[in-house]
Amino acid sequence: MEPRQPAHLFSGPLARKHLARIAEAGRNAWTRTRELAAGPGHLLSVLGDRMPKGLYARSLLIIITPMVILQAIVTYMFMEKYWQGVTERLSAATTKDIAGLVELYEQLPHDKATRDMLQTIAQKQLALGIEFRPPEDLPPRGTRPFFDILDQALSDEIRTRIGLPFWIDTVGRSNLVEIRIKLDDTVLRVFALRSQTFASNSYIYLLWMLGSSLILMTVAILFLRNQIRPIQQLAVAAQDFGKGRDVQNFRPRGAREVRQAANAFIEMRRRVERSFEQRTAMLNGVSHDMRTILTRFKLSLALLDESNPEFEDLQKDVDEMSRMLEAYLAFARGDAAEQAAPTDIEMLLEQLRSDSVRQGHDTKVSFQGNPIVVVRPDAFKRCLTNLVSNAQRFGRAIMISGQRESRYLIVTVDDDGPGIPEDSREDVFKPFFRLDEARNQDYGGTGLGLAIARDIARFHGGDITLGKSPLGGLRATVRIPV
C-alpha cells in the first residue's frame, strides 16, 4: 500500500498560496520566453523606449558607454594578465624561500641552535620573520577575502611546493601575510611583507585610470553643453517667432550644421515676414477700395427718403456687408504684424465682462495666478471677444474663467445655451461653416468667429477646444503656452 499523502499538501490556504506563486512564476517565464522569441527587433524596441530622449543625454551616453566598456576590458586584462601573473610569481618566490627553510630544518638537528640559525638566515637573507611554536592544531580557516587573488595563488604554491598542512592569513594585518606550516615536532610561523607576495602597487594604475576617466568625462560634458546650447537657442527662437515675439537678437552659433539650420531659420523668418508685409499691404489696399464703395453706398442711402419702403432693407444690407467685410479682412489679416507684449489678462477679462453686462447678459469672471502674460494684446482680445460674442448669441448666463499655470495660460468661456453636438465641434472651426441644427439660425453671422479665434490661438502656439459646459451649454477652452 502506498503511503498516504498529507492533506495539507493539496488543499487549504497554504496550498493555494503556493500554487498561486507557481502560476505567477510560470506566467513570468512565459512572458520572458515570448520576449526572447520576438527576436532582436522587439529587444531593440524595448531598449529604445528606455533610452534617454534628450540630445544632451544621448550624446553623453554615446561618449561614456564606449569609454566604460573600453576601461572595463582594459581593467579585466590588467587584473587577469598582469596583476594575477605578478602575484603568482611573487607568491612562488616567497613559497620557495619558505620551502628551503623547511627543508633545512628537516635535515638539521631539531635543536635551539638550528632554529636560531634559521631565524637569522630568514631575517637577513630572505626578509622573512619566522617563529617555531609548540606543536598544536592549526587555526580554522578564516573568511575568504573579497579579492582572493593572493589567497588563491599563495595557497596553490604552498600546496604544490611544500605539501604539508598549512594555514594562511592575508587579511588580518594590512602590511603582513602570516603563514603557518605544521611540521612533525613544531609549527613554523612565517611573517612576510605583503609586497613580497602581492602586486600591491596595482591600485595606482586603477586610480590613474579612474582619474583620467573623470577628466575625460568632465571635458566631454563641458564640450557637449557648449554644442547643445546653440540648438536650444534655435528652438527657443523658433518658439518665440511662432508666438510673435521679437527674435531679432538671434545669431547663428555652434557647429557648422547647427549654423546651417540657424541660417535656414533666419531666411525662413525673413520670407514669412516679407509675405506678411505683402499680404498686409494688399489687404490695406483692398479694404480701402471696398470701404470707399461702402461709403458711397451709405452716402446714397443717406440721400434717400426714410419713408421709402426699401430704405430699411437697404440699410440692413449695407450694415451686413460692412460687418462681413470687416470679418473677412480680420480673418485674412490674422494680426500677424502685431508684436507681442506683456498683457494683464485679468484686466482684459474684466473688460469683456463689463461689455457683456452692458449688453444685458449675466456674466461672471474669475482668475487665478499671475495675470501678466506676453501675448499679442489686440489679437488675443479679439480671440476672447469672438468666444464671448458666440456665448452671448446663444446664451443668457456666461462664465469667464482664467488660470495661469507654470507653462500655460488657460481661459474658459461657458454659456447656458443649446451647445454643440460632440461630432460637430471640430467642424464649427472651419471658415464660413454655420451649424444651424445646434444653434438658432435666426441669428446672423459670417461663420468666421470661431475660425478667427482658433487661428489667433494657434498663432500664439496654443489651441481652442470645445466641450460641454457645467452651465449646460458650450465650453470653449483657450490654452496657450507662456
From TrEMBL:
SUPFAM superfamilies: ATPase domain of HSP90 chaperone/DNA topoisomerase II/histidine kinase, Homodimeric domain of signal transducing histidine kinase. The keyword DNA-binding does not apply. It holds the Pfam family HATPase_c. It is an enzyme of class 2 (transferase). The chain crosses the membrane at residues 60-79, 203-224. GO terms for molecular function: kinase activity. It catalyses: ATP + protein L-histidine = ADP + protein N-phospho-L-histidine. Residues 225-277 form the HAMP domain. Its EC number is 2.7.13.3. InterPro entries: 2C_sensor_his_kinase (IPR050980), HAMP_dom (IPR003660), HATPase_C_sf (IPR036890), HATPase_dom (IPR003594), His_kinase_dom (IPR005467), HisK_dim/P_dom (IPR003661), HisK_dim/P_sf (IPR036097), Sig_transdc_His_kin-like_C (IPR004358). It is a multi-pass membrane protein. It is found in: Cell inner membrane. Residues 285-482 form the Histidine kinase domain. Keywords: ATP-binding, Cell inner membrane, Cell membrane, Kinase, Membrane, Nucleotide-binding, Phosphoprotein, Transferase, Transmembrane, Transmembrane helix, Two-component regulatory system. Gene3D superfamilies: 1.10.287.130, Histidine kinase-like ATPase, C-terminal domain. PANTHER family: SENSOR HISTIDINE KINASE ENVZ (PTHR44936:SF5), SENSOR PROTEIN CREC (PTHR44936). This is histidine kinase. It comes from Labrys miyagiensis.
